[in-house]
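Hey,

Quick one before I head out. I ran the complex with magnesium ion overnight. Inputs first:
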Amino acid sequence: MAILQNTDLRILIVDDQDSVRLVLAEQLIKMGVREVVQARSAIEAIEMFAAHKPDIVLLDIQMPGHSGHWIAEQIRNMDGGHWTPIIFLTGLDSDEDLWEGIRVGGDDYLIKPVRSTVLAAKLRAMQRLLTMQRRLVSVTEELYEANKRLNSLIERDALTGLINRRGFDRILHEQILLARRHRLPLTLMICDIDFFKQYNDTLGHPEGDLCLQTVSKVLGSVCQRPTDTACRVGGEEFALVLPNTPRSGAMMFARALTEVLASRGIVHPASSVSGVVTVSGGITTCVPDEQTSNLGMVTRADEALYAAKAQGRNNFFSYELQLTAKEHLAQR
Ligand SMILES: [Mg+2]
């Protein structure tokens, strides 16, 4: 009797009566079920369930020791996010047991002695539900992946490909917590392009966009460690989040960035500090504690950025060292 749609099933039979298990197993094998495993007690049932991960469980209600209800509850807990159909095996005289069985997580019931056609019909119905459930799980997983991709797009700046303001806020917050836990220095740099308004006014906005893209590439290229993050947080304003970077390391980083950008030689006809595009930056470095916040770090980096501008631009200024990157180099 080829009743089942697909016999690639593993079925666990739990019953304390040997004869019931043997007859059921024989019926299932005749229907072409691939694998039948058997348990005669609650403890065995739990072990078999964990070891064999059956597709369907046929579960006797009346058993010495723990009842089938108890086993069903354990199986539901072990299932996690999955669902394994449970079909109870019961006598004719136990409606209350049956109700309790469905309440604790059973899906259907069979009355003993079990007739082959009824057994096959129930298995087929459960199989259909299983197929639907598996399809649902795979759609859910696809949705989860799509959501992840969408989230990463939401945090990208379209023009430059850098992390945008929204991503910056999240990443800085996460890095503050991480650095606090590991007691490591965290550096934040905020920089902007010197005389960018004049650049746009002189060369036009399309050129301005190209300039932003080139500067972004430079910022991205100097962020070499996987945890270093370059972000575009405003029109011509950028932020670099540099975990595990102490004050002097931040100064070296700033000088390297300045040199790489200068070597690109993007002509800036309206700059009063250089013939090429330059940036000014503010640096703050700390080992975060309970008081450290995004706002606090951004405020300190901003203040340092104003100091860098006040001291002639094309330079970085450290809030904690109260020095520019060039002064820091001269001191060494
Ligand atoms: Mg029994």
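The chain has eleven helices and eleven strands.

Talk tomorrow,
K.
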